[in-house]
Specification:
CATH superfamily of the largest domain: Beta-grasp domain
Number of strands: 5
CATH architecture of the largest domain: Roll
Distance between the termini: 58 Å
Order of helices and strands: HEEHEEHEHHHH
CATH topology of the largest domain: Ubiquitin-like (UB roll)
Bound molecules: FE2/S2 (inorganic) cluster
CATH class of the largest domain: Alpha Beta
Largest sheet: 5 strands, mixed
Shape: globular
Length: about 160
């Protein structure tokens, strides 16, 4: 192993409204740091290859795959995990529309669709389908998820009008 791979560095991360000081290795993924160093277990390891969306977090408000990002790359951007999402409207809609089964992929779906509700509440059916592409569920159907998302988008439109 090279010296670079072993080297640790003290950094600050802005996570869920708090500043955390931690030692990281340059090779640590953000998913590893969140789960193994900070105990934030909401972002889930699925494919760990950027294909399933179960590790989704917000970086500066944009949904990103934490498995595909090095912690050192985050810099001063604000990180929000499912634990830090204070607006529960999407969670409540998922619950009332049975939009989950085992729940493993649910935090990723919630963060990704919450971003859609905030950025494009007028999204068409086609756009919703495309938006859901990065998130994979193996055990629940997508119908409940789509219904939950549509309800939240409608409420968001009404709020904004
Ligand atoms: S675990 Fe990150 S996209 Fe699948």
């Amino acid at each position: 192993m090279s010296n670079l791979a072993q080297k640790s560095e003290l950094i600050q991360l802005l996570i869920n409204g708090q500043t955390e000081e931690i030692y990281i290795r340059h090779s640590d993924t953000l998913l590893f740091t969140l789960r193994e160093q900070l105990g934030l277990m909401g972002a889930k390891p699925g494919c760990e290859n950027g294909d399933c969306g179960s590790c989704t977090v917000f970086i500066g408000g944009t949904p990103m795959n934490a498995c595909h990002m090095l912690t050192i790359e985050v810099g001063n951007e604000k990180i929000t995990t499912i634990e830090g999402l204070s607006d529960n409207t999407m969670q409540e809609a998922f619950t009332s529309h049975w939009a989950l089964q085992c729940g493993y992929c649910t935090p990723g779906f919630i963060l990704n669709t919450y971003a859609l509700a905030k950025t494009n509440p007028n999204a068409s059916e086609e756009t919703i389908n495309e938006w859901l592409d990065p998130n994979i569920s193996r055990c629940t159907g997508y119908q409940g998820i789509k219904q939950a998302v549509k309800v939240v988008l409608k409420n968001e439109r009404e709020k904004q009008s």
